[in-house]
Amino acid sequence: MAKNHHVIFTKRPGVNGEPAEDNFGYEECDYPCDPQNNEVLLKTLYLSVDPAMRCRLNEETGVTYIGPFQIGDRIGGFGGIGVVVKSACPAFQEGDVVHAGFNWQWAKYFLETPRELFQLGKIDSSLVNGKVSLYLSILSLTSGLTSYLGVKEKGHVIPGANQTMVVSGAAGACGSLAGQIGKLEGCSSVVGTCGSSEKCQFLTKELGFDSAINYKTQDVSSELQRVCPTGVDVYFDNVGGDLSNIIIQQMNADSHVVLCGQIAVYNKDVPYPPPIPEEVQKTLRDKNITRDRYLVLNYPDKFESGMKQLVQWTLQGKLKVRETIAEGLEHAGKAFVSMMKGGNIGKQLVHVGDS
Ligand code: NDP
């Protein structure tokens, strides 16, 4: 019988600890039986690696839409791409290359029903110029849809209004797309913050950001004043923490924060969204800045139109992406740890197999 492998959860990092490679194990396991009752047997090609998995490593996730892993559990991630090996589901046939946005098992082969795999769909490679991994790095729930719907629903971008957008975590999966989408939607200037000079170069030289600030080596406050002389109108916040507090202080009256993520505090025992200092709250109040919680999952009726727009931009070459690809399922845990520390540029993926 063919061999199978999966990633399991072995050790909690602790609510105040950084995730480490030994939180994950890699084991040989049984090859799945034949699919029954609408199941499909999938072979994994690519996995999406997402910061939201961090909360599942705690005993309580602090959110309602995903639960914690228990020690010994098989890791179920977010998106994945695979090929149907066998199917007991009439909608899918052997050989179909498929993608899904949720619950993709970190296994070489696994059985699942399309219902459990959020929006399991066939891949049309003509929509991604033949590069199937773009289904995860641009067209997935936790990449392009998060960025696009965040800008559209919470950014209040008005074409021709001379708005300046700042994006934190700008060289990552959501941030790199959010900045480009901000420009496409009509912002006159887009500035990214990120953690290395290589990432800054990527933003300005490859993606068309107007400026980039390395928050680890530069004085963010004075740099922002220099590159955003008319203040900040839209802030797409992927990171939270001190960096966001500095950026919010430079926002204009009636401006908008897209509260996408707060990765700077994911290794801290604080609620989500975390409390912000009183002086920042005062700025938000005094300047009438909106900062509502944003969760892409709350906009299911917008997914189809969002996807259409992302496909159009992709085919027109208007959205550029970088992928950081770890090779082999055995390195999936390491890829997660690396991404949480900034080891990725663009979307962090794992390449598991070929069709
Ligand atoms: P990224 O590809 O952006 O990877 C994470 C990045 O976070 C790292 O590369 C690193 O970049 C940065 N980072 C890590 N620690 C810190 C820190 N202490 N301060 C500042 N930056 C840090 O991940 P995603 O694009 O997948 O996710 C981005 C954010 O979007 C996350 O907060 C995630 O939870 C959120 N998200 C929200 C969704 C929603 O529905 N609201 C859906 C999907 C994602 P650097 O080198 O620049 O430090």
TrEMBL record:
Q: Name one GO biological process term.
A: prostaglandin metabolic process
What class does this enzyme belong to in the EC scheme? oxidoreductase
User: From which domain of life does this come?
Assistant: Eukaryota
Q: What is its EC number?
A: 1.3.1.48
UniProt GO molecular function: 15-oxoprostaglandin 13-reductase [NAD(P)+] activity
State the UniProt keywords alphabetically.
Oxidoreductase
Q: Which residues form the Oxidoreductase N-terminal domain?
A: 8-116
User: InterPro entries from the xrefs?
Assistant: ADH-like_C, ADH_N_2, GroES-like_sf, MDR_fam, NAD(P)-bd_dom_sf
Catalytic reaction list? 13,14-dihydro-15-oxo-PGF2alpha + NADP(+) = 15-oxoprostaglandin F2alpha + NADPH + H(+); 13,14-dihydro-15-oxo-prostaglandin F1alpha + NADP(+) = 15-oxoprostaglandin F1alpha + NADPH + H(+); 13,14-dihydro-15-oxo-prostaglandin E1 + NADP(+) = 15-oxoprostaglandin E1 + NADPH + H(+)
* Alcohol dehydrogenase-like C-terminal domain residues: 175-265
> Sorted alphabetically, which Gene3D superfamilies does this protein's record hold?
Medium-chain alcohol dehydrogenases, catalytic domain, NAD(P)-binding Rossmann-like Domain
The record's similarity note reads:
Belongs to the NADP-dependent oxidoreductase L4BD family.
Name this polypeptide is given: 15-oxoprostaglandin 13-reductase
